[in-house]
Amino acid sequence: MSDKQINPVVNWIKKYLVTQLIDPSINRMEIKGLEKLAFIQKTPKSSMKSRMVAGKEIPYVWIDFVERALNFISNFNWWYEIQDKWLEEWKDSKGRTYFEARVQMQCYIVLDWVRIEKGSFWAWKSYENIATSKFDTFKSAESNAIKNFALTLWIWWDKRVEESQAIAKFREDSYNEEALVSNFTKNKWE
Length: 190
Fold this sequence. Notes:
Layout: H1 3-19, H2 33-39, E1 48-53, E2 56-61, H3 63-74, E3 78-91, E4 97-111, E5 114-127, H4 134-151, H5 157-174, H6 177-189
Antiparallel strand pairs: 1-2, 3-4, 4-5
Helix pairs in contact: 1-3, 2-3, 3-4
């Protein structure tokens, strides 16, 4: 690919990843999947979101960006099949309802006419509230399994480090072994 072709391609990539609009003047089939993958190794800041957990802000990458990146590098030729799913519901000693979902899937992507298959797994826990349901817990596990698959292709890897560091800091600041043991024994033996 010549230098004159790179600028329109870079602009097309940025436009697609932000707006999902496809520029018909660029023949995306001429760009190899590995070249496209190289273009998106730096995750744009606009793809980062954050959520508040116990008063702390935890960053995460938006699933929409990950799916757009997979669409982009494979020319919309990726998919997944859910192999197994599991959802558990329980109440704690205060009557609060919790959900835990687990998803195991087989993911497929075609890059430069080569089909790549990888298994992916994720689990997600949440509690019932006005804004969430069992279905939201399952969808979060499914989205994170897709993100886990994308990590194997180095998509959003640079932001994964930030997310992991924020979660580790949160756990370090919030970890109270006595409270955890006390809560576990109360729930287990009541």
